[in-house]
Give the backbone structure.
Amino acid sequence: MRLLTGNILETGDVVWWAGTDWSLHLADAVDVGADGDALLAATVAAERINDPALVDAMPTDAGPRPRTMRERVRGAGPTVRPDLNREPSHV
Amino acid sequence: MYKYDQYDQAIVDARVAEFRDQVARRLAGEITEDQFKTLRLMNGLYLQLHAYMLRVAVPYGTLSGTQLRMLGSIARRYDRGYAHFTTRQNIQYNWIKLAEAPDLLAELATVEMHAIQTSGNCIRNISSDQFAGAAADELADPRPYAELLRQWSSFHPEFSFLPRKFKIAVIASDTDRAAIQLHDIGLQLVKQDGELGFKVWVGGGMGRTPMIGHVVREFIPARQYLSYCEAILRVYNRYGRRDNIYKARIKILVHELGAAEFTAQVEAEWAHLEPLALDAPQAEYDRIVAQFAEPDYDLAADDGLNRSDPDFALWVDQNVHAHKQPGYAIATISLKPVGGIPGDASAEQMELIADLAERYAHDEIRVTHSQNLVLAHVRKADLYALWTALADAGLATPNLDLVTDIIACPGLDYCALANARSIPVAQKIAERFADLDRQHDIGEIKIKISGCINACGHHHAGHIGILGVDKKGEEAYQLSLGGSGAEDASLAKILGPGFSEAGVVDAVEKVIEAYRTVRSGPGERFLDTYRRLGDAPFKAAVYGAPA
Amino acid sequence: MTIEDQSPVAGAAPPPETAPAQVLSFRDGALYDGPVVALAEFGATSNTAAVRIDPGDDARALLPHLGRLRLVEVSFPKYRDGRGYSSAQILRAAGYTGELRAAGDVLLDQMVFMRRAGFDSFAPAAPLDRAAVDTALARFPFVYQHAADAQVPVWALRDG
């Protein structure tokens, strides 16, 4: 599955496209599929979400699990500070 | 240390107002991210994996208790209760909101601090020797010259859009505690015929193509070093490559022109600049030097030391250096507890250290390139009380320059540029070697870990250097040996094929065990054994002897 | 110092093809509006008084000709390429007193640096708001270093 992600301009928070709005929770992320490129272009143009990108993920019972460690860390938080992590962590 | 006058304060306050306006315009959509990014980088604000990261300048690594206390307070109120000290003596916060950054910078300005030019293609923080003003081997305190460079480089209109970042380091001793040969400009204060001046290196650096700097001037009089730096920067600004960000540092220009031609161009440019009265007048040198006067030493301070507490003695032997003033010592506070995060400190720890600095260290703290802190002026008579307070807060690990005193960049746990995590590798190595007797047996060894080729962990300068790479979407690690950032500067050499995280920890252990086997005696440092024997015994230990 | 804003009158909507580009001037008197030739052509001709310097050009090539130059336009194709600042400082230090114009990707937040480097007119590709320019230019009361402008470094204020 393909997820659309970025960081909120005002706060820098990691967000995931959840279908109708952005969510702080990786588990809410939807597969943007074939619409992904158009959604990404619209997000870039709107200039409210920084570094927007399409990332690959596998569906799991605990929600999407990003393919790369980088995106799993973005989804959960630093692996060395579990006290600051968001659930679920796929790291 | 340097105290702002009304001019310094007005300039920093204006910068705070300017950035507040720039943020407001960005949030209102009046400028694009592409236009804004350069502006926020020039105020040290990066977008990292989880949030914005703010890099606050700690000029030449020197802080007062008041400043450190504010840094702790900011960690608590604007961040998540901690911060990270970097290999360029700065401090970083990992969880900053853009909308709150202007208020944060306004608070920093009240204690004479800022985040000016801690990122971007401009002249960055001027770094220096963490023992400045206390070391017996320095010619004079190098920090006044670093302060003058800081002022000269701030908002320099010609050099704010360089091909790439620019880093300058200043020392005043033959022993190099600031890695000047691995900086874009390295300056060593020297004397020639009774006149103070600088020996000038240009073109050192790490990253994708590490290089050791070249001496372009054996001696430039101190009264002319600003105009000379101006000449170097102008040659770089005009001729540094702008076609490829991996070839844009001045080291590439020096390499491609050759040191002789580069030097000739700098000298020719300096001939144009020298008559323009760009240099500061003697009165300004005197004014700044006076602010770095020696602390009001207790001249009756006892030069003896009660070592009867064995844990205290361990800490003294490892973390305390001799001071030029009898009765005093230089104490290093380790931010490398075994299993901890190298270079991180909590708000509570920062506030405690601020209190201790005010009480025991003439109100001054230094940040080192190894992500530790230093109290440079401590009476020997106060060391025991200091150590007791530090130990209570987990700040008395007696491991300076030992195998568990590891430098690690934030890596893939935090950094958007990283390929692999570096902190867990540091933690696992430290845990493997936690036994203090084993650490003492190994002796001085500097392990440096970078999570990507940008080399913020200075792995090229590690006795053992570890580089995190991306191997088909998996974290992998390359092992290098034999680097040094000291006056005997050398670049570490890759040992062989890379490893997984578990594999590189095992490989480090094999390298160190091999060292113990082949060293000429326990007094020979790892680095010296490597230089004597080359990588053959280490290759054999890690990869097996060749068939 | 007067700022002549030569952008179209507010409220008017000129047809795009003929809209004059905005030129902000910090010079007294009229701006030079004759032809501007590229540096490569400038050497070959003897009667042009205006030349364009691109980022890769050597500003010192103009030094023998400063007497006849009325306008030097320094192009900034991309704001991040800072070579034009060196060109400006070199020309001013050599005694050039004519119009020194920054043209192209000239943004509000570079104005302070550009004025200090010696530019006294601006032809930004995207028009700038004059009030915002005034605010930006007035923001920093002191400067730390000598540059092409007349501002005195702080050390001169400190030591009298």
